[in-house]
Amino acid sequence: xxxxxxxxxxxxxxxxxxxxxxxxxxxxxxxxxxxxxxxxxxxxxxxxxxxxxxxxxxxxxxxxxxxxxxxxxxxxxxxxxxxxxxxxxxxxxxxxxxxxxxxxxxxxxxxxxxxxxxxxxxxxxxxxxxxxxxxxxxxxxxxxxxxxxxxxxxxxxxxxxxxxxxxxxxxxxxxxxxxxxxxxxxxxxxxxxxxxxxxxxxxxxxxxxxxxxxxxxxxxxxxxxxxxxxxxxxxxxxxxxxxxxxxxxxxxxxxxxxxxxxxxxxxxxxxxxxxxxxxxxxxxxxxxxxxxxxxxxxxxxxxxxxxxxxxxxxxxxxxxxxxxxxxxxxxxxxxxxxxxxxxxxxxxxxxxxxxxxxxxxxxxxxxxxxxxxxxxx
Length: 377
Hints:
Layout: H1 8-40, H2 54-66, E1 70-80, E2 87-99, E3 105-108, H3 110-113, E4 118-122, E5 128-137, E6 142-146, E7 170-175, E8 183-197, E9 203-210, E10 222-224, E11 230-235, E12 248-252, H4 253-266, E13 272-273, E14 276-277, H5 280-290, E15 295-296, E16 299-300, H6 305-309, E17 315-316, E18 322-323, E19 327-331, E20 334-335, H7 339-346, E21 354-361, E22 364-371, E23 373-374
Antiparallel strand pairs: 1-2, 1-4, 2-3, 3-6, 4-5, 5-6, 7-8, 7-10, 8-9, 9-12, 10-11, 11-12, 13-23, 14-16, 15-19, 17-18, 19-20, 19-21, 21-22
C-alpha cells in the first residue's frame, strides 16, 4: 500500500531550499557588495559651497591683517650648577606679543618675561631676533621689548579704545597657545572692570573678561574687536584645578596706551600722585570717629602740587590733640572710601592731568583743583 500523498511536502521542500539559498546569499553578500562597489567606485561630486557669510569674511580679514603684527616670544633663564658653579641657560617659558610701533617695540605681559635672562622674538614670517627689555610695570602686567628689524618691518597693531566697550561685543584673540602656530579664537566680551590678584600678589584692575579661549602661550597677544583694533592684551588665567574654565581676561587698551609710552620713555611707570602722604589704618580710625567717608590727608609733601594747591595736612594742636586735615571724598565726582580706591582712581590719569577733588574740611564740603605730578617727584 502506497503512502498517502501530502500536497504540502513540495512546498516545504521549496521553502527549505529557498531559506538555504537566502542564508548563503546573506553570508556572501558583503563580499559580493564589495566586489560590485570596487567595479564602480568613483569620487563623489563636490557640492557647491557658495559664498562665505559676511561675518566669516570679517573674521578672516581680522586674522590676515593682524597676524603679521603678532610675535612669538621664548625666554631663557640662567641657572647655576651648585656643584660645579657652571652657569647654564635653560628654557623658561613662552608667550605672545605684538608690534607696537615702527621702531621695533614689542608689547607683552610682564609675567611672560619676568625672571628671564634673555628673550627671543619670532616674527610671523619666521625671522627671529634677540630682544632687549625696555621697561616693565608689574602693577599692570605689562612689559615692552625692543627688536632691531633692519628691513620689511611688520606693521603695528591698530589701536582702539576700551572705555566704550559693551558686554556682548565680539572679541578675537590671536596668539601661540601651547607653542602651536598662530591661532585665532573668538568669543564675546563677558564682563568689564574686573579685578584679579596675580600669583605675585599684584592686583590688576579694570580687566576685560571674555569667553574667547585664552590659554598659556596666548599671554601677551592682542585681543581685537570686530574692526580689527586692539582693545586689550590677553592674560592667561589658571583655575584652581588647572583646567581651562572658559574665562579669559585681558588688560584694557586704555591702560596699555597710558602705561606703554611711559615705559618706552622712562623704562618704568611713574604713577600720578597728589603729593600727599596717607595711611589706611590712621585714615579709617579718624574718618570712622568723624563718621565721614573718605581718605585723610596726613602729610603734604613740601614743594608738591598738593602744597601749591592748598591741601591741608593733619597736625597736632598745642595741647597734643589731633587736628584732622582735609579728607578726600571724591576725584572728579568718583567717590573714594580707602587709600587703595584713591590710588586706583589716580592711576587712570596721566601726569599733568588736572583733577577736581571733593574735600571735607572742618565740616564743610568744597572742591579743589589739583594738577597731578609723578609719584616721588
